[in-house]
Design a protein that fits this description.
Shape of chain B: globular
Structural class of chain B: mainly alpha
Helix content of chain B: over 70%
Number of helices of chain A: 13
CATH architecture of the largest domain in chain A: Orthogonal Bundle
CATH superfamily of chain B: MetI-like
Order of helices and strands of chain B: HEEHHHHHHHHHHH
Distance between the termini of chain A: 45 Å
Largest interface: A-B, 93 and 93 residues
Distance between the termini of chain B: 41 Å
Number of strands of chain B: 2
Largest sheet of chain B: 2 strands, antiparallel
Number of strands of chain A: 0
Helix content of chain A: over 70%
Number of helices of chain B: 12
CATH superfamily of the largest domain in chain A: MetI-like
Strand order of the largest sheet of chain B: 1-2
CATH topology of the largest domain in chain A: MetI-like fold
Structural class of chain A: mainly alpha
CATH class of chain B: Mainly Alpha
Oligomer: heterodimer
Number of domains of chain A: 2
Number of domains of chain B: 1
């Protein structure tokens, strides 16, 4: 076997492994999708049915299930609100860290990191107590605020690494043109880092949309999110696979569709944050 | 004066972030810490008991078992995800055509919520009705109870987490591989190194910082596991898959033992904190090299 043949064989093997990985990755989701369109009989049939007559019943029962549609809408509000708070505040904070020296800068950085890393339940119960007192339990703003313990450090960290990529000549030029600090932020940093800020917003949205631990403890009905609604289908003996699958598909569809269009940004955000830290 | 104003300006910029951090992290941490010295179960009773909660926990076999299981889950899942993600990244890095599409498809699990990953795996891994046991049977392989038995439940939740999060390691390592400088790799090839030698002697050492970052993220994230276990086994059978966060949840919301739950979280946070600090030190040393 000469060198070229070996290289070709290697490449073939690489494609086969990739194909296997794609199958393992996508099959469970596709299977979930088929079950959401199957009758109970078809879902449990052995051997498993790959061809069947699709039914819409499970999706229709979701419309009747009290609170499910509301949970979907709640998640839209909470995600939008959470992303907005995180991005706006993070832009200013990242700019502060990037462009200024000040006492306590290192402490601020460590604090952000720790807030991001500590386990959710350390924060959840005290927030529960506070929210019961001030009436923010089970509200959209209440959830969106608690999410900041994770989303804000994440956004500051990412946006800061995007600000670092802005060429310093442009920053200097803006200063010569008489821009003040906020002017430079507005006319130089935000426009140049816009793709990065978009990437940060997208990743933050995906995280909030999918979050369960905090939503489970701090929302009940009024602000219940989609993950909590889907979680209510669990239970070890439950065999209501149809409605459970339909609910799951509804819950993941928005982020899956969104990610197809935002693919470039997602990869950019995930990799830049980790490669340049 | 201008210098002073410049300094103050930075504080204005970070003030909103600091305010949010105080409410969402400093207050809860201090509150939990203080309450861990009291005996409080939602009601009006509110007794100071010193280290009582801590001593109770340290004396209970359950606590140590759960702590052990949390680490078992974190170590095995992180190792598995790092190996699979690294392997997959090396393979996809080799491809000439379609690498972009393959990357896109392999990224899908990261868009899916943990609770849905959990429910999905319950359907596929159902001992009686699941597709996986059906396939094992058809291939003449032994069946598994998966989530249903104490001997297999932990392995199964680890597998499920690997399905979910390997993509995270994959995407970052792939980007790392693609951004490696070409000269050292070319030099090794000219010197007659095989592909395998080039990988282990040249590429892998250059990837060290990226792998380290991924290792930190996966370790901390797997230690904090909740969704996957909550949605599949709920910590069972018996308590064979219970981990720190599910234990804290159960104590607080099923048994209403608030102080005990907060004590668990204070201890666990100290552990996570210590691990983070050790990692950060190691990373600094790595960068100095």
């Amino acid at each position: 076997m000469d060198h070229r043949q070996r290289a070709q064989l290697q490449r073939l093997l690489a494609y086969l492994i990739s194909l296997a990985a794609i199958l393992v990755t996508l099959f469970p989701i596709v299977w979930l999708l088929t079950i959401s369109f199957k009758t109970q009989r078809d879902a449990f049939s052995m051997p498993p049915k790959f061809i069947f007559e699709p039914i819409w019943d499970h999706y229709l029962t979701l419309l009747d299930k009290p609170g499910f549609v509301q949970a979907f809408l709640n998640t839209v509000y909470v995600t939008a609100l959470g992303v907005l708070i995180a991005i706006v505040i993070a832009i200013f904070a990242s700019y502060g860290i990037h462009r200024f020296r000040f006492r306590g800068k290192k402490l601020f950085g460590v604090w952000l990191l720790l807030a991001y890393m500590l386990p959710e339940f350390l924060f959840v119960i005290p927030m529960y107590v506070l929210y019961q007192k001030i009436g923010w339990y089970d509200t959209h703003i209440g959830l969106a605020l608690v999410y900041q313990v994770h989303s804000l450090p994440f956004a500051v960290w990412l946006i800061r690494s995007f600000f670092k990529e802005v060429p310093s000549e442009l920053d200097d030029a803006s200063r010569i043109d008489g821009c003040n600090h906020l002017g430079a932020l507005r006319h130089v940093f935000i426009p140049l880092a816009a793709p990065g800020i978009a990437a940060t917003a997208i990743l933050t949205a995906i995280w909030i949309w999918n979050e369960l631990t905090i939503a489970l403890s701090l929302s009940f009905s009024e602000a219940q999110t989609i993950t909590v609604a889907v979680a209510s289908f669990r239970g070890y003996t439950s065999i209501a696979w149809g409605p459970m699958s339909a609910a799951s598909i509804v819950a993941i569809a928005p982020m899956l569709i969104f990610s197809i269009f935002a693919q470039k940004y997602i990869v950019k955000g995930l990799t830049l944050g980790s490669l340049k830290g | 004066m201008p210098n002073l104003r410049k300094k103050n300006f930075a504080y204005y910029l970070i003030a909103p972030a600091v305010l949010i951090l105080i409410v969402t992290s400093l207050y809860p941490a201090v509150f939990s810490f203080i309450l861990s010295f009291f005996n409080w179960n939602w009601g009006v009773r509110f007794d100071f008991i010193g280290f009582g909660n801590y001593l109770d926990l340290f004396r209970s076999a359950e606590f140590w078992q759960v702590l052990y299981q949390t680490f078992l889950f974190a170590i095995v899942a992180t190792a598995l995800e790092l190996l699979l993600g690294l392997g997959l990244a090396v393979v996809v890095d080799h491809l000439k055509f379609g690498a972009g599409l393959i990357r896109t498809l392999l990224l899908t699990p990261l868009m899916v919520s943990g609770i849905i990953v959990a429910l999905m795996s319950k359907i596929l891994l159902d001992p009686m009705l699941g597709l996986v046991n059906y396939a094992l049977n058809a291939l003449g392989l032994p069946l598994s109870p998966f989530f249903g038995a104490t001997s297999t439940a932990m392995g199964t939740v680890i597998m499920v987490d690997a399905w979910w999060q390997t993509a995270f390691v994959f995407i970052i390592v792939l980007a790392g591989l693609q951004s490696l400088p070409g000269e050292p790799i070319e030099a090794a090839r000219v010197d007659g190194a095989s592909a395998l030698q080039t990988f282990f002697r040249v590429k892998l050492p250059m990837l060290r910082p990226v792998l380290f970052t991924v290792l930190i993220f996966r370790t901390i994230d797997t230690l904090k596991v909740f969704d996957i276990i909550f949605g599949t086994t709920g910590g069972g059978p018996q308590i064979s898959t219970e981990v720190m966060q599910t234990l804290a949840y159960r104590k607080a919301f099923s048994f209403l033992q608030m102080s005990e739950s907060m004590t668990i979280m204070v201890i666990f946070s100290a552990i996570v904190l210590a691990i983070s600090l050790v990692y950060m030190r190691l990373e600094e040393r790595l960068e100095d090299d």
